[in-house]
Specification:
218 residues, mainly alpha, three-stranded antiparallel beta sheet
């Protein structure tokens, strides 16, 4: 995975229209923590000088007019914290970079969406099985999955990654039970955002059928 994919994802998966530089780096760090836990192979620049690589990518995206950069009102002596905004007509360009690395985040996205679907701050691993299986089946034509992968170990592996980043915490007394932290809720949405474009594309097609198609299309 490349720094371009990480930064594109951090920009696109943010729910806000504008994002501060330090907030963007925090989102990127969330992704990096997950990738490191899963031992995903990364570009050399992400090992040598991670922040420098991210800043180079931002400069490239700005020069290509994918995003715009504006100064923020900082307190005197505070480090620069500029604001970035995506040019709406350039979203497909950023999606290209994001999609180059999306496969590495699909398990985390499935797990995050499964937790969010429960709408509860406490859950068990078993609570996630139904949602996870549904998502894996729903997206079977979008991604290639290991046919030998078992659902329970896959979920537990992702839960361990979320624990490592303090997104969830094991319950102190209840076995196989986890609590979602307040910061973790926001981070789950960052992972779930990897599937937003896919859901939107499906919705466009379904909406077209509901509005205009009266019979089957051969």
């Amino acid at each position: 995975i490349t720094p371009h994919g990480i930064i594109a994802a951090a920009l696109l998966n943010c729910s806000q229209k504008r994002i501060y530089y330090r907030q963007l780096l925090a989102h990127a760090e969330t992704y990096m923590n997950y990738l490191s836990f899963r031992n995903v192979k990364m570009a050399d620049t992400l090992y040598i000088d991670r922040q420098g690589a991210f800043e180079t990518v931002l400069d490239t995206f700005i020069s290509n007019k994918y995003i715009e950069k504006s100064a923020a009102n900082n307190k005197s002596g505070a480090p620069p914290n500029p604001i970035f905004k995506i040019y709406e007509n350039k979203r497909p360009n950023l999606e290209y970079y994001k999609n180059n690395g999306v496969i590495f985040f699909v398990p985390a996205a499935f797990t995050s969406l499964s937790i969010l679907a429960l709408d509860a701050f406490q859950f068990t691993a078993a609570d996630l099985h139904g949602h996870y299986v549904f998502l894996k089946n729903f997206f079977r034509n979008e991604f290639i999955f290991d046919p030998q992968e078992e659902i329970e170990p896959a979920i537990r592996k992702n839960l361990k990654a979320l624990i490592e980043d303090a997104i969830i915490t094991p319950h102190p007394t209840l076995p196989d039970t986890y609590n979602l932290t307040s910061a973790g809720f926001r981070k789950l949405n960052l992972f779930a955002g990897f599937l937003t474009a896919y859901f939107e594309a499906y919705w466009v097609v379904l909406n077209f059928y509901m509005r205009y198609i009266k019979g089957p299309i051969l």
